[in-house]
Amino acid sequence: MMRILLTILFFLFACSQEGAEHVGGVAEEDCCEPLKGGVDPAALSDESLFLLDHAFEDQHAESRRLVDLAGKPVVLAMIFTHCEYACPAILQDLHKLEEAMSEAERDATQWVLVSFDVERDVPEVLAAYAEREELDPARWTLLHGDEGAVRELAALLGVRYKPMPAGGFSHSNRISLLNAKGELAAHIDGLNVNVAPLVEARRRMDVQG
What we know:
single chain, 209 residues, 6 helices, 9 strands
């Protein structure tokens, strides 16, 4: 969490400095303008994952940051595409979660997979995986990042992983739900699990606004 706190302090300092440069006049740009998704940066708590500034690439080889997800709830899991056991089960649980939601709820939710495998799961591999698994590109985002980005995100999500000699990964099996401001709202652990707690947590977000 120290990095997030430092990020907030840096951001506030930058805002105050820009304001100082326009004393007696009108600034051309507001440094505190809303982030993507209409989220006011001042409204983000120090628990928001959207404050992480690491760059990722999606399955279309486009540069993305987590803040690009701001404005809608996010269902997120960490996998690697050549996984033969746990990751297919995680994906099956994600599909169960999709099916348990109404069409409106599914469309108002962002579905994100982040790969542990920074060497092999490059954008074109993620794109082929998304096509093979029939992941709707209108809803699903698959992300590749460098080792630092993936490690920090995993730590904040409470996901542990380590590379194995055979080339795979030993890892936690966790599906996380973030609210529209990037705060962790709920998670479920395990494989072939009951997804109802995440469905209920997602619906509470709509009620709470």
